[in-house]
């Protein structure tokens, strides 16, 4: 036993391997005894039948070892550094200067900790974890009921946003536990669908609509994956009920109220929803126009006059609504100029127009003055194209696509039921954030901007996204060594002989042992 277990590189698995091999030897010994052998001879024969100890240990270690994803890991840290460098180059805001460096330092540490401990901890303590998660959501629901969606706390918007998105992996865990009970799953889907429609009907805050759409896409994609992997084996009636529920959830997002229909219009046809330079629709139209003028191999080149027209909004509103053009707020060095400026501003406010104040002139206007207010977070890809041209900008997009290809190639290699389900759901959450972020950077924004994982992050989002990515790494890392524990749990209701056979097949992988 010692010679065999010494070959196992993952030390926590050694006791389980040793215990199961001992049980296998005991079964062999009992078989030989039934054939008429004496106990000593039967035990010796059973040990000899196992073969060379070093060879057995080496084979077991090849099957059950901690897995690594060096290419994906390297690309992850490259994207983290790229995000930090791009944001720094695009000028830090005062808020970022206070904590931007710190958040990018914490992110890799959180990723490493979750990768190292996340999935094993979840497997061992899933009941307390689920109870804690449910309590957290109940507390949040209570706070919503008392103070509404905007209760006062630092980072509340990001917390609510990711609380909605993180419902996807939580529901995946619940589906995994209920996967053998169709009635419980139907009740679960009915409850979630009802809650979803209720939230959308009562018009939850605009900033959370994006999170709800990301959640919807993530959980629906995960359910399709569960059917594809045959983790969920339902009859046609149940499948139709789930499909209708998902269709109702989707329809509620897009057609329940005029607010959702407006978001869809801005997403599909932003030029039809522009009313002022403060609109998201205006930002989309502006980005599309600037992208159309950007060369392939070098950055955008505009005269100071053109830059001023873009900065003030005159390029768009000069022949539509001149009231929306920004007010010159420079050279207010006399009482008369200041009084005239205030009169113009007050007149616009009285007409229901939110004025934009321009604090630059042709002599000092820059690219940053032309771009939307949160370009450093929301438009990293588009701004990169403006600065360096289409080819360098699309190279960054290609790197992002490579990241997702490597990510899902690792996820699809995971064999464990819980590990693969949870990893795929976390991957969906990361994927749809990236998809909607890229669409927004090419002039098709839906709701508020999501984050681009690792490249464009905030102090809250980077923590949640590193947790999601860490759980994927952790599930992939421990997939082959946690299988025995999970299979042992799922066979608790079988007989000892059947349980041993299943455990042996888990230990020996596809080779198996003829018992």
TrEMBL record:
Keywords: Membrane, Transmembrane, Transmembrane helix
Domain of life: Bacteria
Spans through the membrane: 71-89, 101-119, 131-153, 159-178, 185-204, 210-228, 240-259, 379-405, 417-440, 460-478
Keyword Protein transport found: no
Protein name (record): Uncharacterized protein
């Amino acid at each position: 036993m010692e010679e065999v277990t010494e070959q196992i590189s993952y030390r926590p698995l050694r006791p389980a391997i040793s215990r199961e091999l001992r049980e296998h030897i005991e079964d062999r010994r009992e078989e030989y005894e039934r054939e008429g052998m004496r106990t000593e001879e039967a035990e010796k024969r059973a040990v000899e039948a196992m073969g060379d100890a070093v060879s057995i240990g080496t084979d077991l270690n090849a099957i059950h070892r901690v897995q690594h994803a060096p290419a994906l890991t390297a690309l992850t840290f490259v994207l983290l550094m790229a995000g930090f460098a791009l944001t720094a180059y695009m000028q830090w805001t005062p808020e970022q200067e206070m904590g931007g460096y710190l958040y990018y330092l914490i992110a890799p540490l959180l990723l490493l900790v979750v990768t190292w401990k996340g999935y094993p901890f979840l497997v061992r303590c899933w009941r307390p974890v689920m109870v804690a998660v449910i309590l957290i959501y109940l507390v949040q629901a209570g706070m919503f009921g008392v103070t509404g969606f905007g209760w006062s706390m630092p980072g509340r918007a990001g917390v609510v946003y990711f609380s909605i998105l993180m419902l996807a992996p939580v529901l995946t865990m619940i589906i995994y536990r209920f996967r053998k009970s169709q009635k419980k799953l139907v009740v679960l889907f009915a409850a979630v669908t009802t809650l979803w429609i209720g939230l959308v009907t009562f018009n939850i805050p605009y900033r959370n609509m994006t999170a709800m759409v990301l959640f919807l896409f993530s959980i629906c994609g995960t359910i399709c994956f569960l059917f594809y992997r045959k983790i969920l084996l339902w009859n046609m009636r149940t499948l139709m009920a789930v499909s209708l529920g998902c269709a109702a959830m989707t329809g509620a997002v897009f057609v329940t109220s005029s607010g959702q229909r407006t978001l869809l219009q801005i997403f599909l046809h932003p030029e039809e929803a522009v009313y002022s330079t403060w609109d998201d629709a205006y930002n989309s139209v502006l980005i599309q126009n600037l992208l159309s003028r950007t060369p392939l191999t070098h950055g955008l080149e505009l005269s100071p006059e053109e830059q001023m027209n873009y900065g003030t909004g005159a390029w768009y509103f000069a022949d539509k609504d001149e009231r929306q053009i920004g007010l010159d707020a420079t050279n207010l060095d006399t009482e008369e100029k200041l009084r005239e400026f205030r009169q113009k501003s007050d007149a616009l406010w009285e007409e229901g127009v939110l004025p934009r104040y321009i604090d630059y002139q042709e002599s000092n206007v820059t690219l940053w003055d032309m771009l939307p207010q949160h370009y450093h977070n929301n438009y990293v890809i588009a701004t990169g194209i403006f600065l360096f041209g289409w080819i360098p900008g699309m190279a960054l997009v290609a790197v992002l696509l490579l990241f997702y290809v490597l990510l899902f190639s690792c996820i699809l290699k995971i064999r464990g039921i819980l590990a693969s389900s949870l990893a795929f759901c976390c991957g969906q959450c990361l994927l749809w954030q990236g998809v909607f972020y890229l669409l927004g950077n090419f002039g098709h924004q839906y709701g508020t901007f999501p984050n681009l994982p690792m490249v464009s992050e905030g102090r809250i989002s980077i923590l949640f996204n590193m947790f999601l990515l860490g759980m994927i790494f952790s599930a992939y890392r421990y997939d082959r060594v946690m299988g025995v524990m999970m299979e042992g749990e799922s066979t608790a209701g079988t007989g000892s002989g059947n349980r041993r056979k299943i455990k042996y097949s888990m230990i020996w992988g596809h080779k198996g042992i003829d018992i």
